[in-house]
Write a structure and sequence with these properties.
The chain has 224 residues and is an all-alpha fold. The chain has one domain. 81% of the residues lie in helices and 0% in strands. The chain is globular, with a radius of gyration of 18 Å.
Length: 224
């Protein structure tokens, strides 16, 4: 199977799942209403594990890195970025249309796949922007997206800051749980001859998934 067939198959299988990922559900609202702070941790973790757009961006970042120390550094910077906007935007009640935010998040997935495939060098004849800085900027945007989800819930009137922080802690737990197998697979695959094929196929999938998610979110924005 050639590269085109491989990433077309991946897109066909996974894009419907990505489009409907991590929505706000009545069952989650019930959990938050009937539970305490642990419920916010649980829902935050669940949201991140099913937040494929967030994880796809991080997958793209991990492809760029060669050792565990760098992975920790970049994931930490991403975490700081999304924690800043998740906590502050929710606490201050700053809102934006969720489809517009998710459209920008989709572009971050497209960006990372494009960069990993050497797009800046090939098409623009320039070096790609500093990755650590871009990861922080995209972390801020992803955090705003997480905030829009959290603000969609009825959090009541008490312990608001504690609930926001608990949700953020849950997001971090979910992020770690989701990244462990991803890091393991990518790091182990590097030892095999097929890694370059896997690398190109996966990053083309990021590009196409980012485009597909962006179109879908813009469609949802213009029709709702």
């Amino acid at each position: 199977m050639n590269h085109k067939n491989q990433f077309s198959t991946l897109l066909f299988i996974f894009l419907p799942v990505l489009i409907y990922a991590h929505g706000v559900s009545a069952s989650d609202q019930e959990i938050l209403t009937n539970g305490g702070l642990l419920a916010y941790i649980w829902v935050g973790a669940k949201h991140m594990v099913t937040g494929y757009d967030h994880l796809l961006f991080l997958v793209g970042v991990i492809f760029y890195l060669d050792n565990f120390r760098d992975i920790v550094k970049f994931v930490t910077v991403f975490t700081i970025g999304h924690s800043i906007t998740l906590i502050s935007a929710t606490l201050l009640g700053i809102q934006a249309n969720e489809h517009l935010i998710d459209a920008v998040i989709a572009l971050s997935v497209l960006y990372k796949g494009f960069e990993n495939l050497g797009g800046f060098r090939h098409f623009f004849k320039v070096k790609s922007p500093n990755l650590l800085f871009m990861v922080f900027i995209f972390g801020l945007i992803h955090g705003f997206g997480l905030s829009t989800r959290l603000q969609s819930f009825d959090m009541g009137s008490g312990q608001i800051l504690a609930k926001i922080v608990s949700f953020n802690v849950g997001v971090e737990f979910g992020q770690i749980l989701a990244l462990i197998p991803i890091v393991f697979i990518i790091s182990k695959w590097k030892a095999f001859r097929s890694y370059q094929t896997f690398y190109k196929t996966a990053n083309w999938f990021l590009v196409l998934a980012g485009i597909g998610l962006f179109i879908f979110q813009m469609y949802m924005y213009t029709t709702h």
